[in-house]
Amino acid sequence: MDEITAQELKERLSRSNNMQLIDVREPEEFEICNLGGELIPLGDLPKQSARIRRDIPVVVVCHHGFRSAQAINYLTQRLGFENLLNLKGGIHAWATQVDPGMAVY
């Protein structure tokens, strides 16, 4: 599985917005803190997968990187996605390494 660090994501976002962010946490977690992007809770992936693009890089985000890894495994093995990146350490890594003002939980 391909991963991207919080710092690498920050650099890519500053150079281009030609990527999609998918957050697979629950709505109440997304309300606490998020990177923008689209919220598709992990349990909703099977019926919401059509919202995920195949033509640009897609970064999948969760709290610490475990649920996003599950999402990527599902999407690659079951649906043939080949353009997915897991945010290593999740949004927690972003908050501690890139944006210390972001809420953590």
Automatic annotation (TrEMBL):
PROSITE patterns: RHODANESE_3. InterPro entries: GlpE_sulfurtransferase (IPR050229), Rhodanese-like_dom (IPR001763), Rhodanese-like_dom_sf (IPR036873). It holds the Pfam family Rhodanese. Residues 15-103 form the Rhodanese domain. PANTHER family: FAD-DEPENDENT OXIDOREDUCTASE, SULFURTRANSFERASE YTWF-RELATED. This is Rhodanese-like domain-containing protein. The lineage of its organism: Bacteria, Pseudomonadati, Bacteroidota, Cytophagia, Cytophagales.
